[in-house]
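hi! just following up on the protien thing from before. the input was this:
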Amino acid sequence: PLKSILENAFNTIISQTINVLSLSSRNDTMPMWAHYASNFTGYVIEFDMQNPYFFSDDSNDCVKPVLYNNKLESVDNLYLRTIQGYDYFNNLLALQKTADWAYEFEWRKVKSFTQLEIDENGILLDTFPIEAITKIIFGCDTDYDFKIFAKQIIEGESKCKQIELFDSKFN
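and the predicted 3d structure came back as:
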């Protein structure tokens, strides 16, 4: 029972203090389109990973690769080592997944909730520079009207001139 209590307390603390931006270095993995882009009805945003938003002099404010391993850190060890603070979470806990997920080629940027904005509905928002977007790839089943709407927004915004639009297709 003590392990369960500690695990619940730890998960509550983490879920109320940490935000994770998940990215992938691949845009052509079918399970990713199915899982994260609503069965090909969504879209992928490609970023310029050299943009300072993703990499900075502060190692805690950088995008880092996820480490895939079949032996994850145990909850007991995580709880006991949490006293090492945010750096520990940022560099280990948030960057580990089981090897089953390796097809995602995931990268993550971890932020504390204090670094985010809260909108009028209480939703936490992270902002990134629009100049960091290089491409939008629409899923093969993305709604046509949505694609036209997105194209009009991009063409009407001077900061979006670098963004290319693509339709995905099944091969």
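The chain has a mean pLDDT of 81.
The chain is about 25% helix and 25% strand.
cheers
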